[in-house]
Design a protein that fits this description.
- The protein is α+β, with helices and mostly antiparallel strands and 277 residues long.
- The protein has one domain.
- It is built from 8 helices and 12 strands.
- The strands form 3 sheets. Strands 2, 3, 4, 5, 7, 8 and 9 form a 7-stranded mixed beta sheet that branches.
- The radius of gyration is 19 Å and the shape is globular.
Length: 277
């Protein structure tokens, strides 16, 4: 198999996005480009040139409708706990291209099933209106999210360690967390915690399912009061109305390019290949 170049990964990701967009328009499901993909749409009218993934997000009600009903016309497969149950080790979803590509995620596995190039599909949930309570909620979410990540990292094969100095640490992680992968209901617990405050009744939302940004991803739900189309590569896709404020809360001046040395792909633990080669 031939390893895919960055532009090839981006092109397959874009094909998946087009399929999702078509389905969502047909079934009246609202989504938004999200995170670095949203920055790319605003700043570059497409991918951030060095970005190696694509993210979209839904409010929780729209997300649940999507994962319940999505069927791809191109044969892409949706992976999430709601469909595959314990075989998916994520609190959100991914849509994968399965026929032409192969993804090696052995350094940080999220399912035992074969998979190809994917895009991340996130749910956004209601957060506490009181800031101090929201901080407490955010820390609680981070703890369970971080624990789930340790369980996934514990599945990394010893042979993948590039530095001998890392081996003792990985062995310890395996002893502490490795056995929990299939027995753990941590992801189900995390999802239930995410849904405690209904999005439609909340003044603020947060990204509880991927809690790494903490309170930087705490913003008003009114950002999703409407959606509009925005150019991204050779198509147009939806973004939430309040994208500018949400991005500034998370990234600061997101229109400013990062230093040259930081313009690198972020997901280097995964490798992608063409199957036909």
């Amino acid at each position: 198999m031939r390893e895919m170049a960055l532009k090839e990964i981006q092109q397959v990701s874009l094909e998946i996005l087009k399929d999702i967009h078509e389905f969502c328009v047909e079934h009246d499901i609202k989504y938004t480009l999200f995170s670095g993909t949203l920055i790319g749409a605003v700043r570059h009218h497409g991918f951030i040139p060095w970005d190696d993934d694509l993210d979209i997000a839904f409010t929780r009600p729209e997300y649940e409708k999507f994962v319940r009903t999505y069927e791809s016309k191109k044969g892409y497969e949706l992976f999430c706990r709601e469909r595959q149950g314990k075989d998916v080790f994520l609190s959100y979803a991914r849509v994968c291209e399965m026929e032409r590509t192969f993804a090696d995620d052995s350094n940080y596995p999220w399912t035992k099933e074969k998979k190809g190039v994917w895009i991340d599909v996130f749910a956004l949930d209601g957060a506490e209106s009181d800031y101090d309570l929201a901080v407490k909620q955010s820390k609680e979410m981070f703890r369970i999210w971080n624990a789930s990540n340790r369980i996934r990292r514990a599945q990394r094969p010893l042979r993948n360690c590039k530095k001998l100095s890392y081996l003792p640490r990985l062995i310890l992680v395996k002893l502490l967390y490795g056995w929990q992968l299939y027995r753990s209901k941590l992801w189900d617990k995390h999802i239930a915690m995410c849904k405690r405050i209904p999005f439609e009744k909340a003044e603020y939302y947060s990204h509880h399912a991927w809690a790494g940004w903490g309170m930087r991803e705490y913003y008003k739900t009114s950002a999703f009061s409407d959606y509009k189309l925005m150019k991204f590569e050779d198509g147009e896709f939806y973004v939430m109305q309040g994208y500018d404020g949400a991005l500034r809360a998370k990234y600061g001046d997101y229109m400013q390019l990062p230093p040259v040395e930081e313009r690198q792909p972020r997901h280097t633990m995964n490798k992608y290949y063409w199957r036909e080669d």
